[in-house]
Each structure stands twice: as C-alpha cells, then as structure tokens.
Design goal:
Length: about 350
C-alpha cells in the first residue's frame, strides 16, 4: 500500500530530519528551539500519515527503522529543495545587496577574519552585504545550505561542491611570559614532557595529537587542560595555564604570548567550499574574491607553504602593517571616553 506525502508540512519534515541527526527527541528539540513534546507529536503524526514507524525508541535515544532509512533520503532532498528555493527568493542574483552565509572554524573566524570583516564592511563592495557568520567547530554541510561558503581545515569531499585550497595554517608552541619565568623555557621536544600542555580539541584538529609524539601514557599526562574553543585556548595560554599550539602569526596580530621554538610544527591546509549556486550572484562573487585575498600568501606570507618563524614575521611586518586584532579586549581605564 502506498502512502502519499500530500498534506505533510515542511515543519514536520524538518523535525524528522533533526531527530535523525541528533538521534534524540530532546536533542532535536534543543537544536530547533521547541518543546520536546512538539517534536514527539510531530514524529507521531508523520508516522500515522505514512502508516509505519520511522524510529525505534530506545533508552539511549532513537534509531531509524528500515522504513525510516528509506524515507530519510527523500526528506533530505526536500530539505535541500526548500533551502535552495528560499535562498534564491531572498535576493536577485544581479544585486550586491543581500545576505551571505559564511561558516568558518572558530579560531580563524574569531582571531583572523572577523577583524578583517569590519574593514570589508566599510568598502564600497561590502557596504550592502549582510554577513551571517557562523564560527563552527565542525565542518558544515554546504550542499544542504547550512552555509553558502565554508572555510575549513579539512578537505571537502562532496564531488558536487566547488572547492579551493586557500593556503596553509602553521601552528607551533607558545606560552605566557609568566609561565616561562616560573617553569623555564623548554629547549627541545623532550623538555616539553616536563611542562603543562594546553590542547584544543575539535573535529577539524583531530590529527594534532601529542600522544603520537610522547606515547599515549605520557601524552595524556602532560595535557593539563583541554578546550574546544580557540578563544578559551588562547586565554589559557596567555594566562599561564601551560604551553599550547597557536598560529605562527599570533604575535603579529597582537597576542601577548611568547613563541617556544623547539622545532615542533603542525600544519594544516585551509580549504574553501562553495555551493555551486552561489557563484551566480554578484554579492557572493565579490565576497569570495575578498575571502581569497584574506588568505593570500603574497600579502600574508605565513599562510604560504613554508613555515615562517615568528621572528621572521616580526622582522618583515611592523605593528602598523596589521590591525591590532586584540585591541578592544582590554579597556583603557585612564583614557577618557569621548562620544
């Protein structure tokens, strides 16, 4: 017996998809900002309309039934079609005004791109663009229009996406002056085993692993603080919690830390992923051109193939060459405010 999708509203389909993604009614409710009963009732109504169960209810959450697995692929097609329709309807492709949805890893988003976005918004090209910035700790699904453009540290794999390698992110150990004054400066990688280490753990940084250097037991022992946010990671290092990895250009943009040069460098490719449709609008083309320039090796050589030591960066660039990106985090109490 066939069951028609006629009469099934988009909100119900959206809830069904989110329950599958979260593997939980409660998780879906939190993600969608609705009550858990709303989610349960929507799934029950959909199951009644279709005539079969879509989920197994279990103590640890929910899993799709065989019928649910068949339906979820169609539901995702509906999701993508709806996203495409609304995105196209928002603005004409010929205007520079309108929204652009950018997802970027939290560290690059907070400490590199956001200060540059403020400058971009003052230009003729960027003045009429509404930027929706999502600093994500996971790779977003650009094909399903979770973002128009994604800047990420893992290579996009979907063949339908347009991808471009923007540059290379080089990280090395840094510490605060107070930490090094108290515990000394390690002279080599072996010395690092006697220090406290601060680590940022996210989906896109999984391959940066101290256990691969020191072995599992020692690697886990020296890590005294794990964070999942780049901002928390930076402040932990700057306040003396331990030694941690930061981009080699950290001091150039105003970070109050000291490089610990022990020939330990982790490098990652920086990738841009585009939804194929976004190239059709003027505003997206303008914004993408600006993004590419923001990681230009010619202008910012630390994003090049070759690792640049912080001293070499400092020798080539004065403080006036770059915005003082951390300015504004610390108030100037002795300077009168003029409005």
């Amino acid at each position: 017996m066939e069951h028609s999708w006629r009469g099934v509203d988009w909100d119900t389909v959206r809830i069904f998809i989110m329950v599958d993604r979260q593997r939980s009614f409660r998780g879906a409710a939190e993600e969608l900002g609705v009550g858990v009963n709303t989610v349960r009732n929507a799934v029950i109504r959909l199951e009644d309309q279709l005539g079969y169960k879509l989920f197994y209810r279990e103590v640890g959450g929910v899993t799709l039934t065989p019928e649910g697995r068949r339906i979820i692929a169609s539901a995702r097609d509906v999701e993508q079609s709806m996203s495409d329709m609304w995105r196209v309807a928002q603005t004409s492709s010929s205007t520079r005004g309108g929204p652009v949805h950018l997802a970027i890893t939290e560290g690059l988003g907070s400490f590199w791109l956001t200060p540059r976005l403020a400058e971009f918004m003052e230009t003729d090209e960027g003045r009429d663009i509404q930027i929706n910035l999502q600093c994500a700790m996971r790779s977003v699904d650009v094909l399903r229009l979770e973002a128009d453009v994604s800047i990420q540290l893992t290579e996009p794999t979907a063949p339908e996406l347009i991808k471009r390698r923007l540059g290379r992110l080089h990280t090395m150990p840094f510490a605060s002056r107070s930490y090094l004054e108290r515990y000394g400066t390690p002279r080599n990688i072996a010395d690092l085993a006697r220090h406290r280490v601060v680590v940022q753990q996210t989906e896109q940084l999984q391959h940066i692993d101290f256990a691969s250097i020191f072995g599992i037991d020692l690697g886990e022992r020296i890590v005294k603080l794990n964070t999942n946010f780049a901002s928390a990671h930076y402040w932990a290092i700057a306040k003396g919690a331990g030694i941690g990895l930061l981009p080699n250009y950290a001091i150039a943009i105003g970070a109050d830390v000291v490089p610990v040069d022990i020939d330990l460098v982790f490098s990652l490719d920086i990738w841009m992923a585009l939804h194929p449709e976004v190239r059709n609008t003027v505003r997206h083309r303008v914004f993408i051109d600006w993004l590419v320039k923001s990681f230009s090796e010619k202008q910012f050589p630390w994003f090049g193939e070759t690792f640049m030591r912080p001293d070499d960066i400092a020798a080539r660039f004065s403080q006036k060459d770059l915005a003082t990106y951390f300015q504004g985090l610390t108030p100037h109490y002795n300077v009168p405010t003029k409005i």
